[in-house]
Each structure stands twice: as structure tokens, then as C-alpha cells.
């Protein structure tokens, strides 16, 4: 009986030693699995290009390590390929992760695939039904802005055109954490142009905003956007110009403004005053 009690106590003591070890290992494992790309980034140095360019090479520091990123985007920023390197103990940059960002304009999707240390993760965000798409919202109220009451002498195919007529402001938000500078730039361009790659927008402004978002670790970007159009006064059903005004914020209350953009698209044959 004494031997049985001794054995039971021995087992209990073993369990007391083993169980805490397992419990302590779990947080460490979780900590190790947290993406290095989500850590704070600082001291950005751009070696090639500047934020908003389709090709970038830059370095930054994070959690005591130095990283180098090489990025290439296509002409309309609907696809971005990024390679992230980390400097090892020998002072050499070795590949740490890759990231591919794609804007699917047909389905209003933003998809980012990240491979970090052999672990692949894909995130997909839906732009949702775009309130600026008049074909999906019939009878949307359109009215001129105070600043556009006087029609300039613009023309389309030699005929007069209307002033800008605006829809209502519509709020939205998008996750933006862990993405590279050019991937964030691509997402902001998608939001600013309502995912219309043929719309023209100042990428330098968006690139600067993207760098601020990455440096400040802003996890969500909030925005409000409105659509405007001008029509031919001769063929009154023809929309000769489309415009998207977007204001970006870093908080849900939309009080901390990051910047604002205007994206435009005109029919061939439109001539501005």
C-alpha cells in the first residue's frame, strides 16, 4: 500500500512538472507564429524609387532587425509582387517572405497572398457593391455642388456639357495591416478609383499616404467617397466624365484625416476648359 501511495505521488509530481511546461510552451509557440511583418517598422530608406512608384527598393528596421523590400507593380497597380529580405548575422540579406497583391476589378476583390518562412496565408477583402456604380442603384439622387453651379466651357465632340452632378457621400473601411508599402498603395488606388483602373489619380499622393499608414501601423483605413458625373447637353444620356472624391481617415470617427484624392475618367472627345 505504501508503495502504491509513493508511486501515485511520483506520478502526480511528474504531472505537475510536465503540465506547466506544456502550458508555457503554447504562448511561446504562438508568439513565434506571429508575423514579423506585423511588427513596428521605422527608419525607412528608399534606395530605388519613391512611394507611389511602380518599382521600389527600400529598407526599414523592425524589432532590432533590418529588412529590405523589393516591389514591382503593373501599370495600373492591379498587381504587386513584393519580396522581403532580412539581414542575417553575417550582414547579408536573405529572403524572409514574399507577398502578392491583386485587385480583381471585375469582382471588386482585393487579395493578398503572403508566404513567410514557408507559411502561406491568403487574405481576401470584398469592396462590396460599389455605391458609385449607377447601374446597381437606380434613381440615385444627383445634384450640383456649390462650386460647380457655373458650367465651364467644357465640351464633348464639340457640344456643351453639364456641370458636375454629385451623389451622396458613402462611408467605408478596409483592413490594411501587414501589407507592404506598394500593396497598401494598390489598395488605396483601388478605393480611390472605385476599383476602376482606367480612372486617373495622383499615385504620388497615395504613395505618401501608404507610407504613413505602414509607419504608423494603422490596421484599418476609413474613408468616405462620393461619385460625380457630367453629361453631354446634346446627347443627354451620355456620361462624358466621371469623378470619385475620396477622403481617407485613420479612425472610425473620421476625424483624423490622412489625405484626400480625386480620380477622374473622361470619354475620348471630351475637352476641358
Could you describe the largest sheet, including whether it forms a barrel?
Answer: 7 strands, antiparallel
Count the helices. How many?
3
Secondary-structure element order, N to C = HEEEEEEEEEEEEHHEEEE
Number of strands: 16
Biggest sheet, spatial arrangement of strands: 1-2-3-4-5-6-7
Taking pLDDT < 50 over at least 5 consecutive residues as the criterion, the unreliable ranges are 1-34, 134-138
Beta content comes to: 35-45%
Q: How would you describe the shape?
A: elongated
Overall structural class, as computed from helix and strand content, comes to: alpha+beta
Topology:
Blueprint: H1 2-33, E1 42-48, E2 55-62, E3 65-73, E4 79-87, E5 93-104, E6 109-116, E7 119-126, E8 143-144, E9 155-156, E10 159-160, E11 165-166, E12 170-175, H2 181-192, H3 203-215, E13 220-231, E14 239-249, E15 257-266, E16 270-271
Antiparallel strand pairs: 1-2, 2-3, 3-4, 4-5, 5-6, 6-7, 8-11, 9-10, 9-16, 11-13, 12-13, 13-14, 14-15
Helix pairs in contact: 2-3
Task: Give an account of the 3D structure.
With 273 residues, the protein is α+β, with helices and mostly antiparallel strands. Helices cover 21% and strands 40% of the residues. Strands 1-2-3-4-5-6-7 form a 7-stranded antiparallel β-sheet, with helices on one face. Strands 8, 11, 12, 13, 14 and 15 form a 6-stranded antiparallel β-sheet that branches. The longest helix is centred in the first third of the chain and has 32 residues, at 2-33. It is elongated and about 70 Å long.
